[in-house]
Amino acid sequence: MSPGNKASDPSTWVERYGDLLFRFAVVRVHRREIAEDLVQETLLAGYRDRARFAGNSSEQTWLVGILKHKIADHFRQISVEPTTSLAEGGVDAAEAQFDRQGDWRGAGANWPRNPEASVSNNELREIVGRCLSELPPGLAAVFTLREIDGMSSDQVCKILGISATNLWVRLHRARLRLKQSLEVHWFGRSDRSERG
Question: Which partner for 61 in 12, 22, 56, 57 could form a disulfide, CB atoms 3.0-4.6 Å apart?
Fold first, then answer.
């Protein structure tokens, strides 16, 4: 980057930041084509606003910040899913799975005893990404913003334009479906050589 508060030559951004921005986006939206579009929108927005780049952060951080806003806009657009009932058993079935803090009441029979060790496993990360991509977009958005990006409930509600109650219902739906999907695609697999 050139000295002062000027952005570097935008023709170098794809080479310098493209992979990083793509990985950042795909972890959050779980679909390559959407991640590619969001990165392209980010680079275009950065190009249009490059004169406003103040140099208070690195150029990479500035572009990631733009991408975060694009991802939030994407989630806002897809979050109009109806939330009146839960599939497979309604609210009572979902409530039975979690305590008041949102933690599981009981782990699945084959879930590992040391989840931290399992999370470090690349294959598990891929399976979780696949399971997230199978969620309805509104559920994936809520789960990603709250649990992966660590946003507060108030922030998620504001971004998606939903109530706190709606957020709670969607998080329960997402957790329940992810648990079921993980039990099928990961913990229920007979070809795993190691169970925690």
Answer: 57
Per residue in 138-166, pLDDT (tens digit) is 888 899 889 888 889 999 999 888 899 99
CATH number of the domain located at residue range(s) 10-78 in this protein: 1.10.1740
User: Alpha helices of 49-196 — where are they, by DSSP H?
Assistant: 59-78, 90-97, 115-119, 122-133, 137-143, 153-160, 164-182
Domain regions of the chain by residue span: 10-78, 90-187
Q: Please give the structure tokens belonging to residue 58.
A: 């690195």
Find how far residue 72's CA is from the centre of its chain. Answer: 10
Sort residue 161 into left (φ over 0), alpha (ψ -120 to 50) or beta: left
DSSP secondary structure code for residue 22 in this structure: H
CATH number of 90-187: 1.10.10.10
CA distance 51 to 119: 41
Reduce the DSSP state of residue 98 to 3 states and report it.
strand
